[in-house]
Amino acid sequence: MTQLLDELYNIVGREHVYSAYSDRYCYTYDASFCTVQSGNLPAFIVHPGSVEEVSQLMQLANREKIPVIPRGAGSNVSGGTIPVRDCMVMVLTRLNRILEIDSRNLVAVVEPGVVTGVFQQEVEKLGLFYPPDPASLPFSTLGGNAAECAGGPRGVKYGVTRDYVLGLQVVLPDGQIVETGGRTLKNVAGYDLTRLFVGSEGTLGIITRITLRLIPLPEAKQTMLAVYDSVDGAAETVAAVISAGIIPATLEFLDQVYIKNIEEYAHVGFPLDAAAVLLIEVDGDPAVIEKQVVKIEKICRQQGATQVRVARTSQEAGDLWQARRAAFGALARLKPTVIGEDATVPRTNLPEMVKRIRRIAEEFDVLIAVVGHAGDGNLHATFLCDERDQEEMARVDQAIAAVINAALALQGTVSGEHGIGRMKSGFLARQLGPAALGLMRNIKRTLDPNNILNPAVMFGEGQE
After folding, report:
1. Of 305, 340, 349, 338, whose CA–CA distance to 419 is shortest?
2. d(CA 448, CA 445)
3. Same structural domain for residues 71 and 113?
4. Last-in-domain residue among 59, 91, 123
5. Contact assessment for residue 283 and residue 246, using Cβ atoms and an 8 Å cutoff
6. In what order do the strands lie in the sheet with 276-284?
């Protein structure tokens, strides 16, 4: 142990290595429901400050067969940064520079520790736009966003993180540094290694630099709130808006449980007697927006909206979105344990998925709140429970499995944006089948033969 510590000190400096029990314990959890088993503490917490240091750390870890858990802000909700016993947690937040913003070519180069919201603010000062907007953007990092292929409300119109990553610098498990992609929109030179690493959840390599695509900042935007006394009416509206040829920047669904708790928490004017609301935003040319708002309001009313409110000021719109981003945390007032799933279906199947979630909640006597990026079919069935109640948790486990099976039956996916992590590793085979899952495991073995990078993530412990 002493020799290893000395080597770590030589690589990153003594002040960037934590080995005290209290420090190590602080890295035993992330934003997910997952927790480490008793005694499974990391051995070291290291904070490298350069790609060269990351490379040296990986060479050391590979030589000594030390598991490495890459970590940014720890905001993921799928258990992707939960440590294993005697591992090295590699925290990348010191790599936090915006290296370049190229306004002429609409490209930016950043390090992985750059906070997503900070980056968005910087590019918007130049009239540019980076659309991916996970709910955690005030504190999540771009490296974590890339590793998880984070989404967000704007995914319906603009896509997710992978749609904006042009290239990467990645340190492999053996310490090699590789460059993927480039700065051009068109690039078909060999296999698409960039997309291989985006969404790989820290299991194949450690991202140390990201080249991102930017777009012009939309001229204007308008936010609307549609209120329903029927969950089905709100769900049907989502499909009707898209079918009418309108692609909003965002189209968010919140059920009554979320409405009540957000309003009591944030006081933004959500009607407490509503069964569901839709939060809709359109952006682009002001004249086009005006026409879209009229069309969307008409569709909402046709589908049973009791009221449609258009935000009068940017402050009012900002308050609505701030409340939406606080939705998950607001529910913690109801139950001590909050488990957010992100099963996703084709948006035309959204109304049926909402109905099935409601039936599952009744069948297993579990409180399930529903919020989601409904415009792209991404629903967050949120299970409110108490992990100290073993009987209740048994029902919750059954209900989670039922929700995931329902999504798969409706041609959906087990995860739309949160990733597999530890929490969904048992469900991955249900979606992929043995051949595809075997191919993924072979890729993992090829790049990481000693299975040191995030060894319990994606496939489950001991299943690589």
Report:
1. 340
2. 5
3. no
4. 91
5. no
6. 305-310, 220-228, 276-284, 250-255, 367-373, 378-385, 337-340
Instruction: Output the tens digit of pLDDT for each of the chain's 464 residues.
Output: 778 999 999 999 999 999 999 999 999 988 887 766 666 799 999 999 999 999 999 999 999 999 999 999 999 889 899 999 999 999 999 999 999 999 999 999 999 999 999 999 999 999 999 999 998 999 999 999 999 999 999 999 999 999 999 999 999 999 999 999 999 999 999 999 999 999 999 999 999 999 999 999 999 999 999 999 999 999 999 989 999 999 999 999 999 999 998 888 878 888 899 999 999 999 999 999 999 999 999 999 999 999 999 998 988 888 888 878 777 777 878 888 989 899 999 988 998 999 999 999 999 999 999 998 999 999 999 999 999 999 999 999 999 999 999 999 999 999 999 999 998 998 999 999 999 999 999 999 999 999 999 998 998 765 55
Strand partners, 385: 337
Dist CA 59 CA 163 (whole Å): 31
Q: Which amino acid is at 212?
A: L
Q: Does 165 share its domain with 294?
A: no
Kindly state whether residues 179 and 207 are assigned to the same domain: yes
Strand order, beta sheet including 98-102? 98-102, 107-110, 206-213, 165-171, 177-181
Between the CA of residue 218 and those of 57, 207, 221, what are the distances in Å?
Answer: 43, 30, 7
Distance (Å, rounded) from C-alpha 403 to C-alpha 115? 32
Place of tokens 């309108």: 246
Domain boundary among 184, 199, 216: 216
Q: Are residues 267 and 158 in the same domain?
A: no
Answer yes or no: are the C-beta atoms of 24 and 41 closer than 8 Å. yes
62 and 111 fall within a common domain: no
Output Rg (C-alpha) for the chain, integer angstroms: 22
The whole domain housing 385 covers 220-409
